[in-house]
Design brief:
Length: 210
C-alpha cells in the first residue's frame, strides 16, 4: 500500500474539529475513498492509579495530559502499513478503557485534536495541517451543550473547568500553534465550502501542501 496521507485537524475544544472531520470523511467516502478517522483524545494518559477526586481536577488542556510518544509511534506504524492497537478513552471516568481496537491503515487518515499543532515532533507525520478557528465564546456554548448531553458534565463543572484550564491553556498552547497550520478554517464543522476545498484537493490526488 502507498504511504497514507495524514491530515491533522486542530483548534480549540468546541471549535468544530470533530464535525469538520466527520463531514470531510463523509465527502471522501461518497467518492469511494477509504478514510480512517483518529482522535488525539484517545491518547489521554490512563489514570487508573489516580483517585477519582484528583482525576476531576487534572488539567486536560495541557500537552502533558497526553501520551504523544504513543501517538507518534502508532502514526509511524500506520505510515509503514502496519495495524495498531488504538486506545479507547472514557470522559466520564477520565481514564482509558481496558481494551483497545485493532485498526488497519487507510489511504487517507484524518487525526483531530486540540494539541496536535503544539507537537513539533509529530509534524513529520502530517501531510496537511488544518486549524479550525472559531471564536472562544462560540466554542464555550457548543462545549456546554455537548458536555452536558454527551460527556456526563454539569453546567457548573463546564463553567469552572473553562475558567480554570480550558481558556488559559487555549491562549498558552493552542492559539499560538495556529501559526503552524497550512490552512485555517473559520466556523468549524458546518463550513461546507472548506470541506469541499479540502476534499477536492485530496480527490485530485494531491497529498502535501508545500
Ligand atoms: N458550525 C457549527 N454550527 C453549529 N454547531 C456546531 C458547528 N460545529 C460544531 N458544532 C457542534 O458543536 C459541538 C462541538 O463540536 P465538535 O465538532 O465536537 O468540536 P470539537 O471536536 O472541536 O471539540 C458539537 O455538538 C457539534 O455538533
Ligand atoms: N477526562 C477529560 C479529558 C478531556 N476533557 C476535555 O476535552 C477537551 C478536548 O476534547 P474536544 O473533543 O473538546 O476537543 C479538552 O478541552 C479537555 O478539557 C475533559 O473535560 N475530561
Amino acid at each position: 500500500m502507498q504511504k497514507p496521507i495524514i491530515l491533522a485537524i486542530s483548534g480549540a475544544s468546541g471549535s468544530g474539529k470533530s464535525l469538520f472531520t466527520q463531514n470531510l470523511a463523509l465527502k471522501l467516502r461518497q467518492h469511494e475513498r477509504e478514510v480512517l478517522v483518529l482522535q488525539e483524545d484517545h491518547y489521554y494518559k490512563a489514570q487508573d492509579h489516580v483517585e477519582m477526586e484528583e482525576r476531576v481536577s487534572t488539567n486536560y488542556d495541557h500537552p502533558d495530559a497526553f501520551e504523544h510518544d504513543l501517538l507518534n509511534q502508532q502514526l509511524q506504524e500506520l505510515n509503514a502499513g502496519n495495524s495498531i492497537e488504538y486506545p479507547r478513552y472514557c470522559y466520564v471516568t477520565h481514564t482509558r478503557l481496558p481494551d483497545f481496537e485493532v485498526i488497519s491503515p487507510a489511504p487517507i487518515i484524518i487525526l483531530e485534536g486540540i494539541m496536535l499543532l503544539t507537537q513539533i515532533q509529530l509534524f513529520d507525520q502530517f501531510d496537511i495541517k488544518v486549524f479550525v478557528d472559531t471564536p472562544l465564546d462560540v466554542c464555550l456554548m457548543r462545549r456546554m451543550l455537548r458536555d452536558t448531553q454527551e460527556r456526563g458534565r454539569s453546567i457548573s463543572s463546564v463553567a469552572k473547568q473553562y475558567e480554570a484550564t480550558v481558556k488559559p491553556m487555549y491562549h498558552k498552547f493552542i492559539e499560538p500553534s495556529k501559526t503552524f497550520a497550512d490552512l485555517i478554517v473559520p466556523h468549524g464543522g458546518e463550513n461546507l465550502l472548506a470541506v469541499d476545498v479540502v476534499s477536492s484537493y485530496l480527490l485530485e490526488g494531491k497529498s502535501k501542501i508545500a
